[in-house]
Amino acid sequence: MSDEHPNDPLHGHTLEMIVMSLVAFYGWSELGRLINIRCFTNDPSVKSSLKFLRKTPWARKKVEDHFIAMNTKTRR
Q1: Burial readout 9-25 (b: 16 or more C-beta within 10 A, e: otherwise)
Q2: Given 4, 51, 58, 67, which residue has the most CB atoms within 10 angstroms?
Q3: What's the CA gap between 63 and 3, in Å, rounded?
Q4: CA-to-CA distance for 54 and 50, rounded, in angstroms?
Q5: By three-state DSSP, how is residue 15 classified?
Q6: What is the Cα–Cα distance from 52 to 37, expressed in whole angstroms?
Q7: What is the pLDDT of residues 49-76, one digit of tens each?
């Protein structure tokens, strides 16, 4: 029952969890370099990043894709 969505790597991860994981792994400056969006480069915070990402589908997709790639690399 715990494997209801085996093909969805984001299942069970909220956007807040994703952002916090990326920040913990890379830090704000490296994250801003890897994903060049203002919410990561200009006075970044989790709250402001979430507000922007929830309104901007293309930026959210970049963040989610990078989170999936990060998890794939760390599991090897």
Answers
A1: eeeeeebeebbeebbee
A2: 67
A3: 24
A4: 6
A5: helix
A6: 10
A7: 999 999 999 999 999 999 999 888 776 5
